[in-house]
Amino acid sequence: MKFPAPIAVQEIARLIGAKLVGNVNSPVTGINEIHKVEPGDLVFVDHPKYYDKCIHSAATFIIINKETNFPEGKALLIVEQPFEAYQTVIRHFRPFEPANKMISDSAVIGEGCYIGPNVFIGHHVTIGRNCRIFPNVTILDHCIIGDNVIIQAGTVIGSDAFYYNTKKDREVWYKRMESGGRVVIEDDVEIGANCTIDRGVSHDTLIGRGTKMDNLIQIGHDTVVGKNCLFASQVGIAGASTIEDGVILWGQVGVSKTLTIGANAVVLAQSGVPASLEGGKTYFGYPAEDASVKKREIVWIKRIPEIWEKIKGLK
After folding, report:
1. Cα–Cα distance, 134 to 150 (Å, whole number)
2. Could you give the CA distance from residue 194 to residue 127 in angstroms, rounded to a whole number?
3. 139: helix, coil or strand?
4. Can you tell me the distance from the alpha carbon of 255 to that of 287, in angstroms, rounded to the nearest whole number?
5. Is 155 helix (H, G, I), strand (E, B) or coil?
6. Residues with catalytic roles
């Protein structure tokens, strides 16, 4: 999540009650989670296991619960509860705004759009030209919709991320992380009925230009979908994954988190993708592997009873 304007790191430190150590001259440009950080970003870490990864990430500013060594040019903001400090920053720069009407006065809707009955459009939403938004669609705060986009009935754009801070030494193990990101849908995208596309935790969930999605599809937080992809019904993609241009996912494909599917890959129906896949190939099964290899394996598996009978006959 980028701030409206760069903020002095001293102001952030005052906001969260942090001790500031290190670079106090560079401004903070945004807040992000570890998978998406960029220079100028603020990030948090609250477990020694992840100190090194976080401190040596692209982030310039680290909210942390212990003073430790860090590279030159960075700064630590030391607090007792980094997670709660992160939540404070998100709530300050992207506060919850209750809705009091179906289409917010702050929403911007381009020329030539059809907005169906019972469509909800939240605060600070931007919708481009010549879009068709069918009945009972929900587009939540800060989302951006491009030109010539079609969203079929019942779809929800911009729900909070399914993303929790987990600690089992407290009464409530799972504490929801505030979602400060957006959903950005580029031009010429078509989204089927009853789909759900979650906003980023602190970055954007992106659907690239020309991508087409069937009904009943779930896209997790911070996922980046490339241009001209094709997803069939009941595809589910977990958070912070990257689906490159031209990828086809057939029905009921499940994709795990923080991985990449390379450009122009095809994943056949009911496959599961637990790790990154190279582009330009066709995959099948669980774990998803080269489809030609997987199909030969299935043939041999079916022959196991026959082979076993032959083995017994040789005894």
Report:
1. 8
2. 19
3. strand
4. 10
5. coil
6. 221
**C-alpha gyration radius of the chain:** 23
Give 3-state DSSP helix, strand, coil % of the chain, rounded to 5.
15, 30, 55
- Residue 101 to residues 36, 120, 149, Cα–Cα distance (Å): 34, 8, 23
- CA distance between the termini of the chain: 69
Q: Please tell me the pTM assigned to this model.
A: 0.92
Q: Give me the residues paired with residue 22 across strands.
A: 75
* CA of residue 22 relative to chain centroid, distance: 31
Which of these, 259, 41, 85, lies nearest to 177 by C-alpha position?
A: 85
Catalogue all structural domains in the chain, each as residue range(s) with its CATH number. Answer: 2-93 (3.40.1390.10), 108-294 (2.160.10.10)
Other beta carbons within 10 angstroms of residue 139's beta carbon come to 28
Averages of pLDDT over each 10 residues, the chain, 315 residues: 94 97 94 88 92 94 94 95 94 94 98 98 98 98 98 98 88 92 98 98 95 98 97 97 98 97 98 98 96 90 84 74
**74 vs 61, 144, 263, CA distance in Å?**
6, 32, 35
